[in-house]
Structures are given as C-alpha cells and as structure tokens.
Amino acid sequence: MRLKFIKPMEPELVDTPPQGDDWLHEIKFDGYRTQVIKDEDGVRLITKNGYDWTGPYIQLAGEAEAIEAESFIIDGEAISINEAGLSDFHALQSAVTSRKPSRDLYLVAFDLLHLNRHDLRNMPVEDRREILQELIPAGGRIQFSEAMPGTGNAVYHLVDQAGLEGMVSKRKGSAYRSGPTMNWRKIKCYAEKEMDIIGVQREAGKPAMVLMAENGRYMGGAFVTFRADKRQALWDRVRGKAGAPPPKGLTKDKAEWLKPGLVGRVKFLKGEEMLRHASLKDFREERAPKEPGR
Question: Number of structural domains, the chain?
C-alpha cells in the first residue's frame, strides 16, 4: 500500500502561551517542516509543500529505514545544530544545498499520522505521541520531541532564557487536521538587535514606522512607540538625514529615505526572514570613523 503525503497541521501564531492543564508544550525548532513516509516503495522525506527532499536528507532516510515498522508517516522538523547545540536555520540551508552529507542534520519527530496500515489522525495527540516515542530508537539522528513539564508561562520563560526560537502548545485530546488550527499554537520569542534606519513612514491615522536594513539588506519596518519627547528627538535626527534616493528595488508609499548614519535597536520575533511584530526600542547616531593621522 503506497502512502500519500498528508498536508500538515499548522499552529496559529499567538502572543502568549495558553493557560491551564489541557496543553502539551514543546520546543519550537528552527528548521524545515518534514514528513517521513515509509511504505512498500521505501522511505521518502517530503517538505511541507509536498516536494520530495529524500536526496538532501539521505542520511535521515537511512535512519528512517531502520525504524522497525512496516509503514508509517511521521511529522517532524529537519534541523541542523550549531556549535552552541541550538537548531540553526542558516546552517540547515547550507547543509541542504551542499553536495556533502552533513554531520549536523537531525529530524525532531513530534507526531505520528499513520502506522502499519492504520490511520492514527483521529486519536488524541498525546496517544499518537506515546506510540511515536516507543517507535523511535534512542541516540539516532531521528529524535523524539519531548514535552516540557510546567505551565505554558513557565515553559515560555525557560525557552526564552535558553535563546530558543519559541514553543508550540498542543491541546490534549485533539485530532490531527490538515491546515491552520487553534488546537496547536505557536508562541515565538523575541530578539533585539541594532540595524540601520534607512527610512521612515509617517501617515496620518497610522502608526509611525522606521524602515530597517542589515548589512545593506532591507529587513522591513518597526513601529515607533516612544513617548512624545523621545519621538520628537527621533524626528529631529530624521530631518537632518532626509533626502536620500530610494534604495534600488525598493518602492514604498509615503516613505522618506535617509542618508546613512542613524542606527536603531529593534525588537522582533525570532526565526523570521524579515522583521515581524517589530518595534524600535532606541536609536543613536553612528559616529564617522576618524581619518588617519587626525
């Protein structure tokens, strides 16, 4: 019996962890969502959009072959580990595009949709995970995603302190249903970083926003939520740097583009390609380097 790819169940992004005892809490890993299918045709590793990535994940495919079951569909996240032992999305991208097998490639398995000709999707999530944990051998590249003990708030605090991307909370008793669902909730941690302020957007009736870049790459906008005096100080700095031409390839309505030299510290959600849920926390003028001999 050939098993078909199942569109993944997707957690909704929320601001705070759910409260109460009706939830399982897991670490959110920074990688590629991956479905591992084993049937009479062998093992296939499929991306969340249904593409076959068995080739780039050949080491994981070998480990999946060794799992003692006739057939299964495992839902998980392919990750790469950096020197600090944390999942690293950029390292994963390098591992996937490299022709050489990566020693740092793993799959964190968190759900089991099918096992030995049985569809498990109507079972409660905690029962599916219990079977999955028994199925996965210890010590390999395919690892079980353990639930974290404690309340949602306590787990979030631990995850944030550890420098991780975030957490996923799953409602106990819930079935597996493809597509977005509030039975799974994704709560991300925030990071802060200095970036260049290259422009501003100010429109009546809308929140003011600064436009940010990092190493010359446009990163998106961050809301300005300062009190009146600090906000005015920012606009004074902006006025002194206004008049730069628009960056190549960037067209923004109502944007004022700035000359280089204004730096902002921005708070944003971790694990995103562009700034998301971002706010400006502080700003400073970047001092020009001194000329030699002066």
Answer: 2
Residues 6+ apart with CB under 8 A from 73: 3, 6, 35, 36, 37, 112, 113, 114
Per-position DSSP letters for 54-104, written without gaps between them = TTTTHHHHHHHHTSS-S-EEEEEEEEEB-TTSSB-HHHHHHHHHSSSPPTT
pLDDT number for residue 85: 57
**Domain with 133 in it:** 11-188
Residue with tokens 């949709």: 113
Of the candidates 127, 159, 188, which is a domain's last residue?
A: 188
| Domain match, 62 and 131 both | yes
Flag whether 135 is in a domain: yes
pLDDT digits (tens, 9 = 90+) for 62-119: 999 999 999 999 999 999 876 555 555 555 555 555 555 445 789 999 999 999 999 9
Q: Are 271 and 287 in contact (CB under 8 A)?
A: no
Q: Is 71 left (phi over 0), alpha (psi -120 to 50) or beta?
A: beta
Residue 292: inside a domain: no
